[in-house]
Amino acid sequence: MREGRFWCLTGLMICVALSCAGVSRASEAKPEVKGTLTANGVTVELPYVYVYKEKKGFYDENDPTWKVIFVGKPIGERELDEHIWGAAYVEIGITKTAEFGDKPELQVYSQSLRLSADSGGNISGGTYPKLEIESTGPERFAGRIYHAEPQKIFDDTFQYDFRFSAPLSNPEAPLGAALPADGGEPGKAYLAWIAAIHAGDLDRLKQLVPAEMASQMEGDDAKDQLELMQLMTPTEVKILGGSSDGKTAILQVEGVMDGAKNRGEVTLEKKGDHWLPTKSSWK
């Protein structure tokens, strides 16, 4: 759903961990899930379930398409379409398509798993699970997703059987209150950041971050990193709107990347008196 996501403003010159926004729900009705993942002979509890609808179908862009995620820890609604870190999970892609018959039917088109929280990677593909879906919305997505027999991919074996019911989440849901059309203080901070980067002005960048971060922007390495950031940062940026809960802000923006006008989304976190860009995605 989000193409070209990259962490262009974090980790290059700002080495600081910023907490994610709190978990939100698309509905006050509590998600429910029963079942477990058995991975290499060990039972893994995945007590959280989330479902969101993709903007485009898998086989045909007009096909209704969903992602269902069973996971071992709570995930912020706006983080659902990103890679899941530090948790076991099962992620299933489901679409309603006529690709394999005369009329649209529900089909699994992807399966991705991490078998333990400390696993170094995920498993994709293999035999797809069976579906017994009772509802696809608009309020709730519910049913059963399961493997009737143990599965084996390379050296790993697994089997799962989940019965669940969950409200549909929205990875692009507004965060807190709407910002002014110009993005308010977060918008001003982002535009100032963009201007300083393209000006190649380290001194201006230092004024836009807390003192402890500014002290890290010294020497030839900082200059080299600034040049890299210039290549990864859009030009002709306009703020289209946004929302904020006071600690995190989400801006909808427009800018030129690689000679083409694109729209994107930028996340900023409040650090002291400063709004710091931490993440961006462009489509």
What does this structure look like?
With 283 residues, the chain is mainly beta. The protein has two domains: 32-169, no CATH class; 177-282, Nuclear Transport Factor 2, Chain: A (Roll), CATH 3.10.450. Helices cover 14% and strands 42% of the residues. The protein has four helices and 16 strands. The strands form two sheets. Strands 1, 2, 3, 4, 5, 6, 7, 8, 9, 10 and 11 form an eleven-stranded mixed beta sheet that branches. A five-stranded antiparallel beta sheet has the order 12-13-14-15-16. The chain is elongated.
Annotation keywords:
283 residues; mainly beta; Nuclear Transport Factor 2, Chain: A; 11-stranded mixed beta sheet; elongated; disordered N terminus
Distance between the termini: 9 Å
- Strand residue content: 35-45%
Whole-number total of structural domains: 2
Number of strands: 16
The arrangement of helices and strands along the chain is: EEEEEEEEEEEEHHHHEEEE
Secondary-structure class = mainly beta
Largest β sheet strand count, sense and barrel closure: 11 strands, mixed
Q: What integer value in Å does the Rg equal?
A: 21 Å
Estimate the helix proportion, in percent: 10-25%
Assign an overall shape. elongated
Stretches where pLDDT is under 50 for at least 5 consecutive residues are: 1-27
Average pLDDT over all residues: 89
> Helix count?
4
